Amino acid sequence: MIGLNEEGLHVEAGRLCLAFANTVDWHASAHPEEHLNSYVDVLDWARKAGLLSDDRHASLLARAAADPAGAGGALKQALILREALYRVFSNTADQRAPAPDDLAVLNAALAKALPHLRLMPAAGGSYAWGYVADEADLEGVLGEVALSAAALLTSADLSRLKECADERGCGWLFLDMTRNRSRRWCDMSGCGNRAKARRHYQRQREAPQTLKVS
Predict the structure, then answer these.
(1) In the chain, % of residues over pLDDT 90
(2) Distance CA 127, CA 119 (A)
(3) Residue 161 pairs with which residues in a beta bridge?
(4) Mind listing the pLDDT tens digit for each residue in 158-205?
(5) Which CATH architecture has domain 11-206?
(6) At CA 9, angle to CA 6 and CA 13, rounded to 5?
(7) In angstroms, how far is CA 200 from the centroid of its own chain?
């Protein structure tokens, strides 16, 4: 099972929005393990994901300490968005239509994020969209997550979206970038190895038993 690593983020998910959706271990099981238990956890995740500089991280921590109710509301919105994204992507990976309510949550987050887009110079004389969040907005880090989700949902890479096939409910989402699209597990060292060992055990049980003659 892959959730957060020691630095707080698994880039192997392939996209920022998937990494955010994966901030729960065993997401598809009856006993999910939450990693975003406070607004501070959200900020720490965002800093490790590259969304916040150390200075802005410290500034938002101070604002959250001065406004506990606002921080609590921002945490609630983060979890609402995270769960909606997880269901949208899980359904998409399973070729099922997402729930309208979940898309509404994403569209509401996008409506807040889009006014913060700016056209900016990029390498080679080209231009690219950049996101400039309100420095005082406790929910500002969610904008880039929502934009990442919209980008994935409208890209060709969406056909590579998968959910870990572990039957215990790992639920980890990732993009299968293998050439033959054969990846099934979050990681072969975890769920993959367990499935491999289970298949080997099953074959051993089903193999004909040879009687020894003394």
Answers:
(1) 79
(2) 7
(3) 175
(4) 999 999 999 899 999 999 999 999 999 888 666 856 655 555 445 555
(5) Orthogonal Bundle (1.10)
(6) 130
(7) 31
